[in-house]
């Protein structure tokens, strides 16, 4: 039998940010059979299941949704199907009471997790019910399945606890033993479902309640195509239900296909792995646990300093132990919203599942050869990165400072070999307030006394001019000038955005005088400002880009110089190198980062959230804040000096669970991971408002 959907007029669908709980399939296997999908004789690839699960989680996070992780337990392979663990709605959380003894202990474990994470009150029903497997919330009512797992009488218990009407639906096909296998909620009014899974009376009821529902075919249902998750616009679903996918798209939904075939061996799909947490107080979602007294003061018995670490940093007194997404947890279990993002190195969030999966897979293959041999990862990485930057070649290195040093060497070599500058006479023009690293050559052209003083003699060959002053740069260029090195937006200086005509004029000067334009995009690039490269905001293309920080995905140092062949081609074997530069592990991680950026969603996310963040920050001007600068999810904030230094403000923010970093004077900067949510931004700005409002 083949069923088709009635025509559904496409409309503009609106997404709503969601919060989910998921349990990784660390112990997943099929060792028993409690539904028709399970066959203990079929081998299970746990590593593949983990990789597919990580892809699902990364998809949610890339859409802006927040994912909490529930720890898996040995001997409970079906715990990965987190939707069965309970129902969370309207400030109430109901832990499951499972029908089969094989899954029975999961109910207690999920109840404990709900309670431990502030999702109370936590209720336990008398009757059997398996959470969101059989209870699907749509608008102000709950659709409830019965017939195989959840008991009919338990529907009344759930209604009494939540105060919402519960609509009972009888399931009759054992393949669709849970409601979420035969019906998917698309938004507050719409569903997709498979009528043969329901009794005649329930089919009639569904037709009455949802006359415009999308009706799945036999093949759609057999692939668990209805076991989907929707945020109202984006529908995350299996890649094995093409007809249902077409119907959803025709109805105005954006579908995202995920291969979860390994977990299907246990009878579960996308929705089975996803428990939505609804109606939770904002503080539970976006703030760290309440702490009496300063959150950053370690208790007695903990190290209060690092006596064996060179004192080249003055860190905030927070000792990180774990991190996930935009949050860091310290050694005492206190949570902090990371609004620094390791100076843009953690653009994609701490332990981004997609990047971690790539690194883990490569760790099991090969990590280092040196450049004495080729590796199968290097050329694909360099080709992808070159394409992302619209260039032809890549020089892979490790740290940002190495990339800048390498670009300087390339520029000088190009000046001698191509432009014809006399040997030893090459000049490179740099900007006041620059920060390109802390090597001897780089600090030689810094005007930051902390970075420069006491480290001479200095490397010659650099001319410094005021940042943002194209006329001064023009006056400084002579026949021996080989390059201009500039940050499109100065980061360490306080997120300084230049005048709109500055970078186009610099580009024109470089072209006119046969000078290379080097753009240091180590902090500003790779999505931070809402574009792949910050120069795109001014429609300017550099001759060389230096990249780093986010290129390593927050896992390891990866940097690069990217340029065309006529520039990077001046290097020959033996003239430049790095043992670790372009190693297979770095290439695998870097290639994954490039693939993520090629999709464009990260840049769009930074642009959209950046507009919101800057609007909120500008509201503080005149209320303790003097000025706000930046683009995308990058902001420099000048605080009224009488309220304290930037370091003082950062310490007070840390007491409230927000991690930021000062630059100079009373300036601090925000560069949160791009996985941060709008609600988390609001909470962080609220903390800053409290700090500058109560300081002094």
From TrEMBL:
Q: Which InterPro entries match?
A: Aminotrans_3, Aminotrans_3_PPA_site, Class-III_PLP-dep_AT, Orn_aminotrans, PyrdxlP-dep_Trfase, PyrdxlP-dep_Trfase_major, PyrdxlP-dep_Trfase_small
Cofactor(s) needed, names only, are: pyridoxal 5'-phosphate
Keyword tags: Aminotransferase, Pyridoxal phosphate, Transferase
Q: Which enzyme class, named as a word? A: transferase
Is Endoplasmic reticulum tagged as a keyword?
A: no
- A molecular function GO annotation: ornithine aminotransferase activity
Reported EC number(s) for this entry are: 2.6.1.13
**Keyword hit for Transferase:** yes
Record SUPFAM superfamilies: Pentein, PLP-dependent transferases
Its pathway, per UniProt, is:
Amino-acid biosynthesis; L-proline biosynthesis; L-glutamate 5-semialdehyde from L-ornithine: step 1/1
Transmembrane residues, as ranges?
none
Write down the PANTHER family for this protein, in alphabetical order: AMINOTRANSFERASE CLASS III (PTHR11986), ORNITHINE AMINOTRANSFERASE, MITOCHONDRIAL (PTHR11986:SF18)
Stored NCBIfam families: DiMArgaseDdahMtb, Orn_aminotrans
**Name of the protein described by the UniProt record:** ornithine aminotransferase
């Amino acid at each position: 039998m083949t069923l088709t959907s009635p025509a559904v007029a496409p409309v503009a669908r609106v997404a709503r940010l969601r919060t989910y709980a998921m349990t990784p399939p660390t112990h997943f296997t099929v060792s028993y059979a409690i539904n028709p999908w399970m066959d203990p004789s079929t081998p299970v690839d746990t590593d593949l299941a983990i990789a597919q699960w990580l892809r699902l989680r990364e998809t949610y996070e890339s859409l802006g949704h927040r994912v909490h992780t529930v720890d898996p337990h040995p001997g409970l392979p079906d715990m990965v199907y987190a939707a069965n663990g309970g129902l969370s709605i309207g400030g109430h959380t109901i832990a499951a009471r499972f029908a089969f003894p094989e899954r029975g202990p999961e109910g207690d474990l999920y109840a404990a997790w709900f309670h431990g994470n502030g999702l109370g009150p936590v209720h336990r029903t008398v009757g059997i019910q398996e959470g969101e497997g059989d209870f699907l919330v749509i608008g102000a009512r709950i659709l409830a399945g019965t017939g195989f797992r959840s008991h009919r009488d338990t529907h009344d218990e759930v209604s009494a606890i939540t105060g919402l009407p519960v609509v009972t639906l009888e399931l009759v096909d054992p393949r669709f033993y849970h409601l979420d296998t035969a019906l998917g909620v698309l938004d507050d009014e719409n569903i997709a479902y498979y009528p043969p899974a329901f009794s005649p009376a329930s089919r009639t009821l569904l037709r009455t309640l949802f006359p415009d529902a999308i009706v799945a075919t036999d093949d759609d249902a057999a692939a668990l195509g209805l076991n989907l998750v929707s945020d109202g616009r984006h529908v995350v679903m299996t890649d094995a239900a093409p007809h249902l996918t077409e119907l959803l798209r025709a109805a105005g939904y954006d579908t995202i296909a995920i291969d979860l075939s390994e977990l299907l061996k246990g009878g579960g799909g996308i929705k089975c792995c996803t428990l939505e947490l609804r109606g939770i107080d904002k503080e539970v979602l976006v703030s760290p646990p309440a702490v009496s007294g300063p959150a950053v003061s370690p208790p007695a018995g903990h190290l209060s300093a690092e006596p064996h670490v060179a004192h080249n940093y003055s860190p905030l007194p927070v000792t990180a132990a774990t991190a996930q997404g935009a949050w860091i947890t310290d050694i005492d279990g206190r949570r902090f919203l990371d609004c620094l993002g390791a100076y843009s190195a953690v653009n994609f969030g701490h332990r981004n599942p997609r990047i971690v999966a790539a690194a883990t897979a490569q760790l099991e293959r090969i990590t280092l050869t040196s450049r004495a041999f080729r590796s199968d990862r290097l050329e694909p990485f360099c080709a992808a990165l070159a394409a992302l930057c619209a260039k032809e070649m890549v020089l892979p290195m490790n740290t940002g400072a190495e990339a800048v040093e390498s670009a300087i060497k390339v520029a000088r070599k190009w000046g001698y070999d191509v432009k014809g500058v006399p040997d030893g006479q090459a000049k490179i023009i740099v900007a006041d307030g620059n920060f390109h690293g802390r090597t001897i050559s780089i600090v030689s052209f810094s005007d930051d006394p902390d970075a420069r003083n006491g480290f001479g003699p200095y490397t010659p060959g650099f001319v410094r001019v005021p940042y943002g002053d194209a006329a001064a740069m023009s006056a400084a260029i002579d026949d021996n000038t080989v390059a201009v090195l500039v940050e499109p937006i100065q980061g360490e200086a306080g997120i300084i955005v230049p005048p709109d005509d500055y970078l186009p004029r610099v580009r024109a000067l470089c072209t006119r005088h046969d000078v290379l334009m080097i753009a240091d995009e180590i902090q500003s690039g790779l999505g931070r400002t809402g574009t792949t490269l910050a120069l795109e905001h001014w429609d300017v293309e550099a001759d060389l880009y230096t990249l780093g920080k986010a290129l390593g995905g927050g896992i390891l140092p990866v940097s690069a110089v990217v340029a065309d062949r006529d520039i990077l081609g001046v290097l020959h074997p033996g003239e430049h190198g790095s043992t670790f530069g372009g190693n297979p592990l770095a290439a695998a991680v870097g290639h994954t980062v490039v693939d993520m950026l090629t999709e464009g969603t990260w840049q769009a996310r930074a642009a959209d959230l950046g507009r919101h963040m800057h609007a909120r920050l500008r509201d503080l001007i005149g209320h303790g804040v003097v000025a706000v600068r930046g683009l995308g999810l990058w902001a420099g904030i000048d605080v009224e000096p009488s309220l304290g230094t930037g370091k003082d403000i950062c310490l007070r923010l840390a007491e409230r669970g927000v991690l930021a970093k000062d630059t100079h004077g009373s300036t601090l900067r925000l560069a949160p991971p791009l996985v941060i949510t709008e609600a988390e931004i609001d909470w962080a700005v609220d903390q800053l408002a409290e700090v500058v409002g109560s300081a002094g």
